[in-house]
Amino acid sequence: MATPIIMPKFGQMTEEASIVEWLKKEGDKISKGDVLFTVETDKSVMEMESFEEGTLLKIAVQPGVMVPVQSVVGYLGQPGEAIPTAAAPAPAATPAAPAAPEAGPTGGPAVAAADKPPAEAPAAAPGQASMPFKISPRAAAFARDHGVDPSKITGSGPGGRIVEKDVLAYLETRRKVETRGKEDEAPQPMSRMRQVIAQRLTQSFRDTPHFYVTVAVDMTDLIAYRNELKAAGKSYTVTDFIAQAVVLALKEFPDVNGSTDGKTVRRHPHVNLGIAVSLEQGLVVPVIPAAETLSLRELAERSRALAEKARAGKATPDELSGGTFTISNMGMMNVESFSAIINPGESAILAVASTVPQPVVRGTAIVVRQVMRITLSCDHRLVDGALGARFVNAVKQKLEDLALWKSLAA
Fold first, then answer.
1. Which residue, of 62, 94, 126, is where some domain finishes?
2. 303: which of 27, 75, 85, 394 lies 20 to 30 Å off by Cα?
């Protein structure tokens, strides 16, 4: 009897997923460890390997079809083996609004999901062989996010595979056609990632009483020291220092690292630090678990590695969930200040603006200093004004303490 290929369950709360692309076709010989297909969840796109050897006897679920986890998506075995006659899994129902993902910083100002697939490929006509839909994961995500039906695109890649430049060319052609004498653009569907972002942000802002505390941080000395470290071959980003300062402050103020549902309070034993990463499709929040156990160098390395995985669309659901506090840094985007919406399941989020030269009064003199504004968004059910002010000033004090950084970066 043929062995079923099962759609895995990704994380505790993931209930459905879809195949982006089959990388093998029916009749192919399969070895253990071969990548069979790429699969999309609400959090990311991942490669799924085979745990068995054999021949791919049947593809039961085509790309783009959302099905429940643990569904059978294909069969593996020896040529001639009987394939069960059970029907393919029914596509998951599409709700009017996206189902609420798990609590935690897989969403909020950032959600999980790196690449998104396009609409389902056209079914083969009766009597016609079923052919896998040839489109790269990157092109699939780009097509989905721009509301493009990839079945209308001619691929220029190997074997007619659709690549990102094909989608770009199609969009440019369509734009030229649609703008001729057309005043109003037709509504475009939101990507799944954007739908989840919208749902989570609306839920958080509606259910969580937000208030905001902003302080100005003098970054002059720390930036000069960072430049010294860089010249000595020790490279750190400003975000690395902010992350370390936040971790130290959360150890002093554990209530800010807690969460509440309005009836109970949970104080988390570890600082699971989320750092928002911007993607073309939106934001994701990779999480560094037990960040309080890491040195400054380890924290910087872990943050960099997770950000690279997220941008490559390879972050796993576990790496995009379970956070207890989030940092959203827009310092590279030339903004004076901003406030962020708290991730569901957390009690606060720190918004970091750009560092800019500003006149500052020092004694009786006016000098130019490098100033960065940070804004703490707080859940007023758990963090009151005094606690929020003490916490954000603790972060400020640590960032301005040059002796601290010389001891940590030595």
1. 94
2. 394
